[in-house]
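Reply to dn_fold:

You asked what the input looked like. This is it:
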Amino acid sequence: MSSLFPPPLRRRIIKAQDVPSMTWKEQSEAFKSGLNEPPIIIDNGVYSLDESEFKKFVTSGTFVDKSLFIMEFMIFGQRANLVTRPRRFGKSTNLSMLETFLSTDYPPLNYIPDLKTSLFGKLKVAKFEWFAKLNYKQWPVIHISFKDLGSESWELMLGEIKERISDLYGKHQYLIDILPEYNKKDFVAVLNRETTGVALWSNALSC
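and this is what came back:
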C-alpha cells in the first residue's frame, strides 16, 4: 500500500482542519519519529503492582509513557484486536488509557478540552495536535473488565458479571433517550438487574 495514503478504513485521519496540507506519509513519519524518541517516564515515587487505572498511575505512580499506543490503535487497528502479553505487562492500564483519551463526556461539554492541560499533557501523544483534534474526547467508549471476578463458585462469578454489566448500563443510561421503544424495556431490565433471562444477559453486550 502506498505510503501517501492511509489504510482504507482510516481515511478520516487526514481530515484535521489545522493540518490541511499534511499528507498521510507526513503523518506516518511524524508518528514513527515519536517511536524513536527516548521514553518519557513520570515518576511520582510510588509504584503499585495492583494498580491498573491510568489516571491513578499517571498522577500518583510511576508511569512509562505508552500513549502512542492510542495512535497506533486508532490508525492501524482492526475491528477486533488481540493484545497478547503476560500478566503485569500493562494490558489493563493501556486499555484504561485508551478509554480516558477517547471517551466523550456526558453530558457533552460546551467546549473542546485542551489536551495539553489534561493527564496526557506531558505524554508523547500531546505532540500530535491533528490527532488530538480528531480523537480526544470524541468517541463513545464501552469498557468492561472481568478482572478479579469471584471464583469461589459459578453462581458468585455469574452474579458479579451481571453486576458489572448493569453498572456499565448505568454509565451509559443516556442511551435510553434514543433507543426504540421495544429496546428500552430490555435496557432498563438489565440496568436494574430485574431479569433472570439467560438470552437477555447473553446479548447485553452485543454490538
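DSSP finds eight helices and two strands in the chain.
Hope that clears it up.
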